[in-house]
Structure formats: structure tokens, C-alpha cells
Amino acid sequence: MEGRPGEKELRSQIGPRRRLSDGPSVDRCGSGFRRLRPQPGDVVAVGGDTPQYALGLLSDGDTSGDAGFNSAGGVNRLATFNATPDGNGRSAYTNSATTGGPSVALNPTDVLRAGTPPVQRVSSSGNAISALLADTGSQETINFIFSASLPTVANDTTAANLGWGFLHIVEIGTDSVQIAAATTTNAPSGGLTAAELLQIYTSNSAIQSNQVTGAGDSSTAVVIPEIPPSGSSIYKTFIAAPTLGSIVKTVEQNDPTTVTGSSSPANTIAPFSSARLNLWNDGYFHNPATAFPGVGC
């Protein structure tokens, strides 16, 4: 038995620094989140934050008019569930103003099949692999997953023990990791080398721009290095072995406001998915502070 369809691989590499605008400059409408209830015969997919938009556009089409799988109007649909509960790829937290305490990350839920109760949303590539392997009921709920990470040997062993044979992997795209900075930045215009990034991200004391080896910058501005959570695909790609320095700040993955909204945006850098940067810089996302229909729609 070949086993059920597995997840895609998005291979990544460290690339040059890319700039972010101070907020989304929207000239096209982003797609909304549907709350469909997949029926028998529909194909259900869950997965990670990094590849979620690729699968969403594949199923429903893009804002340039390119049709998706569901555009054909067939009886059976492809239902992809994002890892994030927000159309702009943001996580959900409690409101400290109403709770009187610190904001706490929520566990959003999804209804993956009609007639079933809400279940905890699959929020990462690793969680997606685990969910697929845990879907052992008589009626299959998850047909395939989308992931930026390959399954482990242990994952394949689990699949074999379940009688699936193995996890079938289909690579449908590639991505790279860029270093993002604000539009107005003190980061060197030519980008940062791997050696310079290593110097910054392993430092345990404040490091100034003019202390970065080879940067050629006379600025005494303190660099603010940011990193997504350790379980994220961007973290795993960006951090192969080094121990992070104490000055590195953990932030949301692929969220430009972690740079533009930091205490010193001009001195902040963060690893970022190139594909997600392209969506932001192409105006795919609405400014979430603007009511429907948003800017440019």
C-alpha cells in the first residue's frame, strides 16, 4: 500500500536582506477566510503557516484572476485550512485590556468535516504531520497536509506500522529565507553575510552597527535581531546549530509588524519567508485596521 498523500517540501536557503514597508500598501483584495463544512467526497488539507497561502491560492485562485481548483464548480471541493486564525497570517491572543492580565496565546479551532465538532486548529508543519498520523478513524478526515518540513524516520515508521507503507511526499514549490528590514533601515544596503548574521545572532551583549564585521557602517545604533519561535519552519531553516545570543527577541513568524512595530524599526532585522514577503510587497494583504472593502478594492 502506497499510503495516503503526504506533505510538500519547501526547501529554503539564506538569501539577501529584503525590505518591508511600514504597513501593507494594498492595491488588490486578499482572499477571505471561508468557513465551509467539507462534505464526504471533499478533499481536506491542513498544514503549516509558511506554505498555507500557496495551497489556498491553488484551491481558490488568486487576486489576479487565475482560477483555482474549486473555480471549476465541481461537486467535490478542495478545502485547505490555514495554520493561522487570521487572513493576514497572525496568531490569536487574549485581550489583556479585558482580562486584566498578560495576553495569552489562544488555541483556535476548526470544523474539518460537516457533522463533526470543532477540533484544535493545526498550527504548524510539525503538527500537521502528527495530525495526519493520528487520523486513523474508519472515516478519513485529513486527506493530505502541506508542510515546510520533511517527515522524520520515526514518522515514516509510524506510517508503516499503520499499514500505509510510507508517507508520499510531493514537492510543489520552493522557498528561501531572507533577512527582512524596514523600508528605512540602518542595515547595510548590500545586505548581511552569513558570518555577519552569525555574529549578530550569537551575541550575548548589545551589538552596534559599526561592530558588525565587514558591514562598513559607522552607526552606533544597537541592532535588534528577531527570530520566530523555535518550532517554526523559518527558525529551523535559519538556525542550524548555533546557540542564540541573549539579545535575540522571539517574535511571530512571517509578521512584518514585528519589524515595523518594534521599539526601533530602523535597527531591527528578522528572518522571513521570501514567498510571504512577496505577498506583502505585492499588496496582497489588506491593512487589518481598515474596514471592508479596504484600500484598493
Spell out the blueprint of helices and strands.
Elements: E1 14-20, E2 43-47, H1 52-60, E3 78-81, H2 96-99, E4 109-110, E5 119-120, H3 125-134, E6 144-146, H4 153-161, E7 177-182, H5 194-201, E8 224-227, H6 233-238, E9 249-250, H7 257-260, E10 268-273, H8 274-281
Parallel strand pairs: 1-7, 2-3, 2-6, 8-9, 8-10
Antiparallel strand pairs: 4-5, 7-10
Q: pLDDT under 50 segments (min length 5)?
A: 1-34
The radius of gyration is 21 Å
Q: Roughly what percent helix? A: 10-25%
Q: Can you write the helix and strand succession as a string?
A: EEHEHEEHEHEHEHEHEH
Biggest β-sheet description: 5 strands, mixed
Description:
The chain is α/β, with parallel strands linked by helices and 297 residues long. The protein has a domain at 35-161. The protein has helices at residues 52-60, 96-99, 125-134, 153-161, 194-201, 233-238, 257-260, 274-281, and strands at residues 14-20, 43-47, 78-81, 109-110, 119-120, 144-146, 177-182, 224-227, 249-250, 268-273. The strands form 3 sheets. The chain has a 5-stranded mixed sheet with strand order 1-7-10-8-9. Strands 3-2-6 form a 3-stranded parallel sheet. The N and C termini lie far apart (48 Å). Residues 1-34 have low confidence and may be disordered.
